[in-house]
Amino acid sequence: MIKYAPTFDSEDVEIEKFYEEIEKAKGYLKSQDVIIVMGDFNAKVADESVEDVGPSGIGTVNERGSRLIEWYQINNFTITNTWYQNHPRLQWTWKSPRDRSKNKKDYILIQKRF
């Protein structure tokens, strides 16, 4: 299933609907299926001391990041691409116009058991 995350100017209702649709899609899968959720969540999880967030984040956690953390903890996932130590120039996945700021907003989540 392909679903686009709400943009930064979206209302909280749209964000909750997005996570509900992910839950609905999970409901169609078998318990033994490998579930990978990935994409641009418009979230920053940084390198906070949160369970299953690795040390290679950028910046500080934003509201969308907090919501993503809440979702993956409830659903027993981990954010895999925060665990790889890369050179700082290779960590960011988004760059603002005129190169003023860089962030990591794209994530790959997988169930902890895998």
TrEMBL record:
Residues passing through the membrane, by range: none
Gene3D superfamilies given in the database record: Endonuclease/exonuclease/phosphatase (3.60.10.10)
Highest taxon in the source lineage: Eukaryota
InterPro entries tied to this protein: Endo/exonu/phosph_ase_sf, Swc5/CFDP1/2
Coiled coil: none
Name of the protein: Craniofacial development protein 2-like
Species lineage: Eukaryota, Metazoa, Spiralia, Lophotrochozoa, Mollusca
